[in-house]
Amino acid sequence: MNTMPAGNAALEVGTVVAERSVHLTRESLVRYAGASGDFNPIHYRGDVAERVGLPGVLAHGMLTMGLAVETIVGWLGDSGRILEYGVRFTRPVVVDAEGGADLTIVAKVGAVDDEALRIDLTVTCAETVVLGKAQVRVRSES
Amino acid sequence: MNPELVGRDFPPTSPYLVGREKVREFAKAVFATDPQHSDPAAAQALGYADVVAPPTFAMVIQDLTLQQLLSEPDSGIALERTVHAEQRFRYTRPIVAGDELSARLQVTGVRPFGKGAMVTSEAEITDAGGAHVVTAVSVLLIGGEE
């Protein structure tokens, strides 16, 4: 993971503040199911995913949302600076039984004002953007 | 999908006690490696009483309200025809181990979408003292009957 020093002074719109890659496997999905309580079988059973017409076993949208925002926590220093976080689930993340799935997250400054910054997260899987309008509003450092 | 769900009064969910090991387990599951999520000393250095839950942990509490919604006999919602379209959290403060949280559900919007409906629901999550912690907003796409 790469991060830049925090502080708004040098922050301009478009600056990349953090980025990382995460490799998901079926084990990751089972682990998230247990930790979150979301046991929808489309996240671990290929037969069920196929029956309901999905392209394969999918990662939980909330897993993608959760791991995406963590990309910036080290840079923020304190996750309590996060005021608001929202996403749209636009494309499914198919997690292959053998190969898993690779997600890449890039966090850029989207907007700056006196009280807050907007950090825009670009989350891609196999060169497809999987979250829409993934935006985190964070309190500026006092 | 039943539009009369908008404005219906739901009781607050039973208090959920946030445990330190649960926060660590959830943090590991979302690849949250920062020590504030696992090491009480690191969290205390930031001014928190105990480990800080990752931001999307609020979903665990919101899910209790979505179960209320699904179990309404007249909701017209079936889980297998439900797709999570959008999610948003608005925070007053982060969730910390030791918090005792309950959530109150409000269905704020139902609008037709294809054969089904887009349903917006909000869960206002408060602590044992009644203070606001986070509001979780979900937009669910509910498929119509086959």
Poorly predicted runs of 5 or more residues of chain B: none
Q: How much strand content do the residues of chain A show?
A: 35-45%
The general outline of chain A is: elongated
Q: Sketch the major β-sheet of chain B.
A: 5 strands, antiparallel
Give the CATH H-level superfamily of chain A: Hotdog Thioesterase
* Share of helical residues of chain A: 10-25%
Using the alpha-carbon principal axes, give the shape of chain B.
elongated
CATH class annotation of chain A: Alpha Beta
Coarse structural class of chain B: alpha+beta
Instruction: Enumerate how many helices of chain B there are, as a single number.
Output: 3
Describe this structure in words.
The complex is a heterodimer of chains A (142) and B (146). By secondary structure, chain A is an alpha+beta fold. Chain A has one domain (13-139): Thiol Ester Dehydrase, Chain A (Roll), CATH 3.10.129.10. Helix content of chain A is 22%, strand content 37%. Chain A has helices spanning 26-36, 46-51, 61-70, 73-76, and strands spanning 2-3, 16-24, 82-89, 101-112, 116-125, 128-129, 131-139. In chain A, β4 (101-112) and β5 (116-125) form a beta hairpin. Chain A starts with a strand and ends with a strand. In chain B, β4 and β5 form a beta hairpin. Chain B contains 3 helices and 5 strands; from the N terminus they run βαααββββ. A 5-stranded antiparallel sheet of chain B has the order 1-3-4-5-2, covered by helices on one side. By secondary structure, chain B is an alpha+beta fold. The radius of gyration of chain B is 17 Å and the shape is elongated. Chains A and B meet through α1, α3 and β3 of A and α1, α3 and β2 of B. β3 (82-89) of chain A pairs antiparallel with β2 of chain B.
Quick take:
Chain A is of the alpha+beta class and 142 residues long. Chain A has helices at residues 26-36, 46-51, 61-70, 73-76, and strands spanning 2-3, 16-24, 82-89, 101-112, 116-125, 128-129, 131-139. In chain A, strands 1, 2, 3, 4, 5, 6 and 7 form a 7-stranded antiparallel beta sheet that branches.
